[in-house]
Structures are given as structure tokens and as C-alpha cells.
Amino acid sequence: MSKASSINLFSIRTPQMRAFHLTWMAFFVSFFAWFACAPLMPVIKGEFNLTPGQIANINIAAVAVTILVRLIIGPMCDRFGPRKAYTGLLLVGAIPVIGVAFSQSYESFLFFRLLIGAVGASFVITQYHTSVMFAPNVVGTANAATAGWGNAGGGVAQGLMPLLLAALLMMGVSHSMGWRIALLVPGLLMIVMAGLYWRYTQDCPQGNYADLRAAGIPIESGKKGGWASFRAAAANYRVWMLFVTYGACFGVEIFIHNIAAIYYVDHFGLSLESAGIAAASFGLLALFARALGGFISDKVALRGGLNRRATLLFVMMLGEGLGLLWFAHAGSVTLAVIAMLCFGLFTHMACGATYALVPFIDRKALGGVAGIIGAGGNVGAVLAGFLMKGLGNTQATLSMLGVLVTISALCAVAVRFSSSDPADDAVLAQALADKAAA
């Protein structure tokens, strides 16, 4: 069985479509768990009497460890396969997600929030799994759709967690106990998702990596397993250009998830519920915007090759930077929400366009490529966190980020391809032949 040349959304009959749906579901649950704390921070702030500096440390901790885990998890996919990697990450990640509900001090909360960041590495596995399952003509759309729908978990968390807390308060539960009970939900969901992923997915169209290696069957994306994959990816300049662009789009996305709710409360005086809904609108753009970025990238590549994908990314990064500047200087909550939706649209589309390029950088070191570029997103988020801590003002931080994102768009232009890879053309031809035969 070869890579799929089409996406049949309402089918789970093939291993490609089972992987498609279960990857975005697993990523959705992971992203929900990763950012479940953020919309409850106004309550948690009062619980532990947190200072602005401590809140900044918590936001940095939430994304810092993800950098390391994303670098590791990519080569692990090459070595062990995405099925084992995802199942293991979900089970291990559920421990600190549940543990944060039992924290009794700022220090213990910070510790668990740091460990929860490992869950963010789920993105790399999601992109890896769809990359090995789908042919070049649709892989950009597949990557962007699964990542986008998974990213929506962050938006759902922004809107749902305050409502869940409000429901618990109406039942007579105290504020102190309510946020703790609410945070148990995403941890339990991760355990359930781990079981489903193990049961219903396989590593690639031909089967699981362990079985294929035992049978002596070569694995296209797993030839350079472990650190060989990482070294090969690190030697490619295009990986580092996309590392920067992903830091400027996904890094900003994570930063906004962490500060949006509390920004609307502190800057515009909104209630916790209203701020949660406003912040959720940014995350929910991922339901379609990231997929749209990948879809457009696939279409322009059919007409003008891989370099058109890079040019499209440049345009989207410019839109993000300018929109972010607008958001930073919005004078009313209405204008702020409109500006956030506009720059958010470009941000999500830029994320999709970035990973539409990933499968074509180095097919033999896919795990390393996906891991390094994915880590770039978290490096961007961490740097944004340190920038806010240094400036001490959220609005000034947003303005500076707008300028930096606009400049970073130049890295997209630097990503050049001399021609298409004959191996990619062969994969596409075989997938189309299989489709015609079916």
C-alpha cells in the first residue's frame, strides 16, 4: 500500500485516514491539556498570590521544556515509529497534567507547568505521521489540517475551562477546589486517547516499523533513525530558516494563548468568562485557517513548484506582523478582537504553510527536520516570554513582536529549491496509480 493521494474526510477504512483523524484528535487533546491552565490564571493568580514576574515565569515554563522534547521526539519517530512515540507521550504527559491539580504552592505549580510543556511535542508526531501517510500533492493539506484542528484544542480550552469552573461553582464547589477539579479533565482525556491511538493506528501505509524492519523491508522515512536523523537535518540550512519562521508564527500563537485571557481582563476590564470567549476566538481560527494555509500551499506548488510555497509563506508572515502591530495599538476591546482575528488568520496560515514545506526538506531525515523546526516554535514562545518579562508591559511586547515577525519573514524568502525531488515525483505517481486502480 502506498501513500494516499487524496483526503477522504468521512472515511476511516484506510490506515492513512485512521492516522489522519487520530493524529488530529490526539493533538487536540494534547493542546487542550497544554493550555488548560491559561484561562484559569486569573483565579490561580489569586490562589497563590502570584506576582507579574511569577506569572511570566509560569508562561515561560509552559513552553520551555517543549523545545528539548520536540528535538528528541522527531528522531524517536524515525527510530520507534509514530504509533509508539505518540502513545508513550500521551501516557507520560498525563502525569503532570493531573499533578498540577494537586499543587499547593507557586513552586509546585511552576514545576508541574514546566513538565506539562512536554505535551507540546505531540505536534511533531502529528506532522510526522501524516507526512509518511500522504503523497506530495496533498501532504501540505493533510499536515495543516491535522495540526490546525489539533491546535483548536487550545482555543477550546480558553472558552471551555472557565465555563467548566463556573459550572462547578454553581454546584457549590469552592474556587480553590473548582479549578483543581477542572484541570483533572484533560489528564483523563489523554489516557483515553493513548489507548485509542495504540489500538487503531500503524506507523506507515505498509505497517509498523518494527514489523517491517524484522521482515527486511526498507523504510523510506526511517532510514536515518535516532541521532543520525537529527544530524542530517541540522546540516540543512533550510531547516534553520524554517526554524526562525516557525518561531515567529507558532511561537506567537503560543504566546497569545498564554496571555490573551489575562490581557483582556487587565487591559480592557472584561470578566473572566468574556475574556475566555474572546481569547478562544483566536484559537478556534485553527479549525480552518491552518488547513487553508496548507491547502493554498499545495495548490501554488502544483503551478510553480516548491519555491512558490516559500514565497507564499513570506506573504503570510508579513500579514501576521502587520496585524500584530494593529492588535497591539487597538484602542477598544472591539477593535482588539477584530485585529486579533485578522493577525490570527495569517498566523495560523503561516504555520500551515511552514509545515507544508517540511516533507520536502529531507525525506530521509523527516523526524529530525520536523523536530528541529517544531522546536523553533517553542523557542519563539520562550523568547517572547522573556521579552515581556524584560519590558514589563504586554502592549509594548506585542508591538515589538509585530516588528520582529515582519523582519523574520525574510527567512521564508531564503528557503530555495533547485528542482523537485525525483523520489517525491515517484511517490506521487505511484499514489495516483493506486487511486486510479481503486
Can you offer a commentary on this structure?
Residues 19-420 form the Major facilitator superfamily (MFS) profile domain. The protein is mostly helical and 438 residues long. The chain has one domain (15-209, 219-437): Up-down Bundle (Growth Hormone, Chain: A), CATH 1.20.1250. The protein has 19 helices and no strands. Helix 1 (15-34) packs antiparallel against helix 6, helix 13 packs parallel to helix 16 (333-357) and helix 15 packs antiparallel against helix 18 (394-414). The mean pLDDT is 89.
Characterize this entry briefly.
The chain has 438 residues and is mainly alpha-helical. It contains 19 helices and no strands. The mean pLDDT is 89.
Low-pLDDT residue intervals, each spanning 5 or more residues: none
N-to-C series of helices and strands: HHHHHHHHHHHHHHHHHHH
Write the CATH homologous superfamily.
MFS general substrate transporter like domains
Class derived from helix and strand content: mainly alpha
Number of helices: 19
**What is the CATH architecture assignment?**
Up-down Bundle
* Averaged pLDDT: 89
N→C terminal distance: 11 Å
Name of the CATH first level: Mainly Alpha
Number of strands: 0
For the CA atoms, what is the radius of gyration?
21 Å
Per the CATH scheme, the topology name is Growth Hormone, Chain: A
Task: Describe how the helices and strands are arranged.
Blueprint: H1 15-34, H2 41-48, H3 52-80, H4 82-99, H5 106-116, H6 122-133, H7 139-170, H8 175-182, H9 184-200, H10 209-214, H11 227-234, H12 237-268, H13 272-284, H14 289-304, H15 306-328, H16 333-357, H17 366-391, H18 394-414, H19 422-437
Helix pairs in contact: 1-4, 1-6, 1-7, 1-9, 3-4, 3-5, 3-6, 3-11, 3-17, 4-5, 4-6, 4-9, 6-7, 6-17, 7-8, 7-13, 7-14, 7-16, 11-17, 12-13, 12-16, 12-17, 12-18, 13-16, 14-15, 14-16, 15-16, 15-18, 17-18
